Each structure stands twice: as C-alpha cells, then as structure tokens.
C-alpha cells in the first residue's frame, strides 16, 4: 500500500469496526450503530470529508465526556406542525435521525413538519437526513450551524461556520431522487483537514491564512479562514443557516459554538433545523410527480457544456460513486488507515482491521 494507491476496505468491515470502536469509547450500542452508519454512508457516497475519517475525533470527544454516551433527546416545545428539541449533548447523527424522523411524522399528519434542535454536536453529512424524508415520499430540508471558521462578506474575522444545507426531492423513482448537499463556504473544511493529513496542497480560492492572505497550504488554512461560496451570495446563505439552526432554536451561534477539533473544554452546542413536506401539499401528488419527471428529463437532455460529458442532477454523482465503492470497497489513504488503526488500538478494538495492518 502507498500514497498513490489507496487501500480498498469493504464497507461492512469498516461499519463493524466503527461500531466496535465507538462502543469501546463509551457510546451505547444503539447510538454507535447510527453514528457508524452515518460515517459509512458518507464514505460510500464519496463525501470523504464527513466519512470514516471523522471516527477518531468522534471517539476522542466521547472519551473526554464532551458528548453524552447515551443520546437522550427531549421535546422542549411542540406546536403541532413544529417542535423544538434538546439533543442532550448527544451524538449529532443520533440527534439528527430522531429530529428528522419527527419532522417526517409531522409532515405525514399535517402536510408539513418542522423540527429545530439545540444542544447537539457535529452531525455529519446532511444528505443522510434529507434522504430519510425521500424514502417516505416527502421533500426533505436540513441545515446546521458549525464552529466559527468563515468571515461574513466584507469582514476579516471569522463568525459563521461552513454552515451547510441540504434538500432532497422524491421523483417517483426510489433509485433516483434529487439530493443536494453543500457547505456555504467555498469548500467543506473537512476537505482541508484531509489535505493536511495527506500533506497535499489545496486549490487557490479555498482559504486564507491567519494573516488574511490567500494560501494553498492546508495547515495554514486550518489556522486561518475558509471563504464563503460565491462571495456575498454564500455569506447570505450562511446567515440564513445560522438563523434557522441557531437563532430560532436557541442553540449556540457563531463563535459560541465549540470547535470539534480544537476545543476540548466544553460541549459544542450545535443547532440544527429539519423540515419535511408532502409533495402533494400544493398540487396533487400525481401532478407533482409528472412535473418533476418532466423537468428532470428536460434537464439531463440538455447539451453538455465544454468539459462535461453529460448533464447530471444533484445526487447522481454520489449514487455512481456509491455503486462503485459498494462493489470495490471504500478507498483509504495511508494516513487515514494509520489513524483508524491507532484509534482502534487505543480502545483495544483493532481485530477486524488486522489483515490490513501497514508495514
């Protein structure tokens, strides 16, 4: 194994390994199962910045008692179509699943379901939650705020996090929903973290160093600032995410949020916002599916631009990667593999990766 040829590990092995290490770090089995599934789903979809590479930091925060070993979500307020939950400082993926499932239940009853969350932690890729709504023939929407790493447009100090948002739209074909998931920064900070671990440069335009100068050094970028997507436009979207996830829920906002990687003195206090909606809320369900399929067909039939072979709808690239990785395994760099083995060894849980030990 070398840096140029990542080792391929079957998803089933990584999932079992992640569960065992999370349990050894203190998580109850039912929480560990959800967190591991969240990480593996991201890795399978090619969202490596939010995949199995996060296992180490999740385990570290569990061991330090910065994340509750058993996630106990409580309803603070229930207003029919909407509810506010406390995540009880539990594992973010577990909180997210329970919140989205409540939004789904409300949408089935009222046509629309909205659930805000406070007192949570990093919850991974948001498509994991919006896709749950799609499986119930509902439109899904989700946002989360994040530790302060990005300046608002026109500012020179950080206030927003990467503040991602996601939506998922059913098309009538369960194998091909429209699924969109982006950070409102130019790039997810996790990609810069992966570049730093691999000692690889990052593209210009991703970040600034601590003195405010553009940098291609990922380590300098991690000490500096990520930039908003599309300048003022991305900054405006980040503000919306901060309002929905933080202001409306009573969660920590901006610099109040604890850093996932650097702050080991307090819980993160992250906030989330989830919504689910019936596709037939405004027009009939049949009409919606006819129209969304017609729109989809017209879009993918458009002539591709220079440098593109075809027009793809959001979610299709990830599905293709998932099929390939389900068949061939999840690729892991030398650095990530070493990190995973070290995390397991620190917990006495490296048995399932023994045959992949590095020399």
Task: Describe this structure as you would to a colleague.
39% of the residues lie in helices and 16% in strands. The chain has 359 residues and is an alpha+beta fold. The protein has 3 domains: 7-65 and 330-359, Hypothetical Oxidoreductase Yiak, Chain: A, domain 1 (Orthogonal Bundle), CATH 1.10.1530; 73-185 and 230-280, Ribosomal Protein S8, Chain: A, domain 1, CATH 3.30.1370; 195-227, no CATH class. The strands form 3 sheets. The protein has a 7-stranded mixed β-sheet, sandwiched between helices. It has a 3-stranded antiparallel β-sheet with strand order 9-8-10. β6 (165-169) and β7 form a beta hairpin. The longest helix is centred in the first third of the chain and has 19 residues, at 92-110.
Describe the structure concisely for a colleague.
The chain is of the alpha+beta class and 359 residues long.
> What's the helix-strand series?
EHHHEEHEHEEEHEEHEHEHHEH
Could you please say which CATH topology of the largest domain applies here?
Ribosomal Protein S8, Chain: A, domain 1
CATH superfamily of the largest domain: Malate/L-lactate/L-sulpholactate dehydrogenase, NADPH binding domain
Can you list the strand order of the major beta sheet? 2-3-4-11-5-6-7
Major sheet size, sense and barrel closure? 7 strands, mixed
Quickly count the helices.
11
The structural domain count equals 3
User: What fraction, in percent, of the residue positions are helical?
Assistant: 25-40%
User: How much strand content do the residues show?
Assistant: 15-25%
Average pLDDT score = 93
What form results from the Cα inertia axes?
Answer: globular
Structural class: alpha+beta
Total beta-strand segments: 12
Poorly predicted regions: none
Distance between the termini: 9 Å
So, CATH architecture of the largest domain?
2-Layer Sandwich
Radius of gyration (CA) equals: 20 Å
């Amino acid at each position: 194994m070398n840096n140029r040829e990542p080792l391929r590990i079957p998803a089933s092995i990584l999932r079992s390994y992640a569960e065992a290490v999370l349990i050894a770090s203190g998580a109850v089995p039912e929480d560990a199962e959800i967190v591991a599934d969240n990480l593996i789903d991201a890795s399978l979809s090619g969202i490596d910045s939010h995949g199995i590479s996060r296992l180490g930091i999740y385990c570290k925060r569990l061991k330090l008692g910065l994340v509750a070993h058993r996630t106990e979500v409580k309803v603070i307020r229930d207003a029919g179509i909407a509810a506010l939950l406390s995540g009880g400082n539990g594992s973010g993926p577990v909180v997210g699943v329970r919140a989205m499932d409540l939004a789904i239940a409300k949408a089935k009853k009222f046509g629309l379901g909205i659930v805000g969350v406070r007192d949570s932690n990093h919850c991974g890729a948001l498509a994991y939650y919006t896709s749950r709504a799609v499986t119930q023939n509902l439109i899904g929407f989700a946002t989360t705020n994040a530790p302060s790493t990005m300046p608002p447009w026109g500012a020179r100090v950080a206030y927003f996090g990467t503040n991602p948002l996601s939506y998922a739209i059913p098309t009538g074909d369960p194998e091909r929903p429209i699924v969109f998931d982006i950070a409102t920064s130019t790039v997810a900070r996790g990609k810069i973290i992966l570049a730093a671990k691999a000692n690889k440069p990052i593209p210009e335009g991703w970040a600034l160093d601590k003195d405010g100068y553009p940098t291609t050094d990922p380590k300098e970028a991690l000490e500096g600032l990520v930039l908003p997507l599309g300048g003022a436009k991305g900054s405006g979207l980040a503000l919306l995410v901060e309002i929905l996830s933080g202001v409306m829920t009573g969660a920590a906002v901006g610099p109040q949020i604890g850093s996932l990687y650097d702050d080991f003195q307090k819980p993160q206090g992250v906030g989330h916002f989830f919504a689910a909606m019936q596709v037939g809320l405004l027009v009939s369900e049949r009409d919606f599916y006819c129209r969304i399929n017609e729109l989809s067909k017209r879009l993918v039939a458009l002539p591709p631009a220079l440098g593109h072979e075809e027009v793809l709808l959001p979610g299709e690239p990830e599905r293709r990667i998932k099929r390939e990785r389900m068949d061939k395994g999840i690729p892991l760099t030398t650095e990530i593999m070493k990190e995973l083995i070290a995390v397991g060894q620190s917990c006495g849980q490296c048995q399932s990766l023994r045959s992949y030990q590095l020399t």
